[in-house]
């Protein structure tokens, strides 16, 4: 098997898995929501499977046409984490890596920080509520990723948190943790402001 086909194979397998999963999702019972204006229980599994299949198809075609080198090549304008936080870099004043060196670099401290952030999210979401926890998570995640424009970071985090609240509660009809104490009051006030009941 040629190297190009070998690099396509995992994505092609995922495409086949997506097709099989979609066929299984067609068996989800939607009788309880028949005639109701809300989306049924089959919508989100199908949407995720279609998205997964589309990504697998895209990668299969891209690797078949252009090879794996196109997938590994660093893109112009790609934001790389600051070299100062890399455990392999000892000079905190060293410039961030760019180009091929940055593409092949590993950042174990950033990986551990990201994992700790996810664990912290799970622990804090019941106490702080979905909105506050998601806002703090996005702020910290973007900061860990190396972005240093704090005002824009806060705006993106706030917008992302509000968008997710609307998506989950107005589109997917999923109840979210409101938090406890003043965080619950904040969550309820926010939902009232957004017109979510």
| Count of β-strands | 0
- Strand residues, percent: under 5%
Structural class: mainly alpha
Overall average residue pLDDT = 79
Assign a percent range to the helix content: 55-70%
Q: Please give the domain count.
A: 2
Query: What is the overall shape?
Result: flat
Number of helices: 8
Q: Give the C-alpha Rg.
A: 22 Å
Uncertain regions: pLDDT < 50 for 5+ in a row? 83-95
Largest sheet: none
- Name the helix and strand elements from N-terminus to C-terminus, one letter apiece: HHHHHHHH
The N- to C-terminal Cα distance equals: 57 Å
Oligomer: single chain
Question: What is this structure, in a nutshell?
Answer:
The protein is built from eight helices and no strands. It has helices at residues 3-25, 43-66, 68-72, 99-104, 108-128, 130-144, 150-171, 182-194.
What does this structure look like?
α1 (3-25) runs antiparallel to α2 and α5 packs antiparallel against α6. The protein contains eight helices and no strands. The chain folds into two domains: 1-73; 107-197, no CATH class. It starts with a helix and ends with a helix. The chain is flat and about 60 Å long. By secondary structure, the protein is mainly α. The relative contact order is 0.09. Helix content is 65%, strand content 0%.
């Amino acid at each position: 098997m040629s190297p190009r086909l070998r690099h396509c194979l995992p994505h092609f397998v995922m495409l086949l898995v997506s097709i099989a999963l979609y066929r299984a999702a067609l068996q989800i019972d939607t009788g309880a929501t028949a005639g109701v204006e809300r989306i049924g229980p089959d919508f989100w599994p199908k949407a995720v499977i279609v998205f997964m299949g589309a990504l697998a198809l895209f990668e299969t075609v891209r690797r078949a046409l252009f090879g794996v080198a196109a997938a590994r090549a660093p893109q112009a304008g790609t934001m790389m984490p600051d070299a100062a936080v890399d455990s392999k870099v000892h000079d905190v004043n060293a410039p961030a890596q760019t180009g091929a060196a940055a593409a092949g670099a590993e950042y174990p401290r950033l990986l551990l920080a990201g994992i700790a952030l996810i664990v912290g999210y799970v622990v804090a979401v019941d106490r702080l509520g979905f909105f506050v926890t998601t806002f703090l998570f996005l702020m910290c995640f973007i900061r860990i990723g190396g972005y240093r424009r704090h005002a824009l970071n806060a705006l993106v985090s706030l917008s992302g948190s509000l968008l997710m609240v609307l998506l989950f509660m107005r589109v997917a009809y999923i109840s979210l943790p409101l938090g406890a104490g003043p965080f619950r009051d904040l969550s309820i006030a926010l939902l009232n402001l957004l017109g979510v009941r």
